[in-house]
Amino acid sequence: MSAPESSSLSPPRASRRLDWLDALRGWAVFGVVLVHSGHLAKSFGFAGQVSAAGQYGVQLFFLISALTISMTYESHIGQYGTTPRSQFAWFIKRFFRIAPLYYLAALFYPVENYAKYIATRHHLGLQISVPNILANLTFLHTWIPSANNTVVPGGWSIGVEMFFYGLVPFIWLILPIRRRIAVLLFSIAGLLTITLLVSKAFTQTYYVEDNSYLYYWFPAEAPTIIFGLIFFFLYGKNLGNPISRSATALSQIGFVFLLAAGLYVGTVKEVAPVLAPTILGAAFVLMIFGLQGWMKHIAVHPLSIFLGRISFSVYILHFVVLDAMAFVLQKLHINRSSELAIIPIAAATLIITSGLALLSKRIVEDPAIKYGHQLSRQFVLGRTQAH
Question: Does 92 map to a domain?
Answer without folding.
Answer: yes
